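Batch manifest, entry 17 of 40.
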Amino acid sequence: MSKILIKNAVILPMTGRENLIEKGEIAIQDGKILHSGPTGSLTQDWQADETIDATGQLAMPGFINCHTHAAMTLLRSYADDLPLMEWLSEKIWPIEDQLTGEDVYWGTMLSIAEMIKSGTTTFLDMYFFMDQVAKAVEDSGIRAVLSRGLIGFNPNAETALIESRELVEQYNGKADGRLSVVLGPHAPYTCPPDFLRKVVALADELGVGIHIHVAETKTEVEGIAKDYGKTPTQHLNELGLLDGRRVIAAHCVHMTQEDLEIFQTKQVGVAHNPESNMKLASGIAPVPKMLELGISVGLGTDGASSNNNLDMLQEMRSAALLHKVNTGDPTVLPAHQAVELATVNGARVLGLEQEVGVLKEGYKADLILIDLEQPHLYPRHDVVANVVYAAQAADVRTVIINGQTVMKDRNLLTMDEAKVLAEAQRCTEALLARSQNKK
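Output type: structure tokens
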């Protein structure tokens, strides 16, 4: 790996609210941050192989997308303006039955291109054909946590458990450490208790965490209450799913105070998806209460079929604005806290807090450069507020992941962008044709 020096940058290290460096330098060696500090603080005898002059740019940790279904980029704008269960059962699940591994590979590559170009350096994915997702991660240079989506009521549920085991055994820790794997039971309403117990046993055997949708809609909460006499959180807790392992719960919109206290006690991490929840009218997760209780909360975009983009800058802005209007308090979720959700908090939710999420010596070199020389980012009263409330995806100029430059001056370096777009379009047209023939 080459040694990279970034100089003359404004640095937002996310190591504390007062630690903004107005003019600084970052040294990268062996895929990690060797040094981050004010200009002139680097040992003089260290020589870089490549120097990036970041004058007029902000260096900060890359964004961490805590919940995606990456290959659903192929279904972007395919089914909009519908309630969640109708959207899933009548539109999404039927066409997903026609997906191939090739579709998932190119759909994932499309999503990775979009994520890198908007500053995301790590994502958590739940889908299927996950060997193809892993291949896309390896080919593109991004960092990812993968989970094979598991639906306990499906005829192939046992096969999916076997595939989950194989995914862990083949890919956990691979791609120069950029890949990690957890188990992915879809939700309490799609996975009966006996199946969830099998998931828990497998997670314990393999020593991995669990990623699951929790309390996304009122319909889900009502159904679980009818079937088991509990909330989804209480149901999962009674099954032992929240004990003794990392659990990443997506959505968590309809939560009681007891539910929140269970999450607090069990140290469950939450992937908050404000734009998807708004679009599907699922509701508003009680994120301010979660944060008050010390629950780790990160941001996710969900899939591009329910968002409809993977832009974490937009997600930060939406989160900050949504909770202000919902609580009637403009001080709720201030800009710096919104950035924490997208970086250091997201790392904590995924169990990567000792590796990424901050610009600090010894951490993985996952960082982005944002062009501050834009009309919508002037004047610079508050750089952090500008990032949350004014910055756009196109302002991300350079992306470095694991010490490798994967985008420079808006040009993707690890993939042929034109080919990715063409292959994704080809796969989508073939998918639609198969779906129509099925009818």
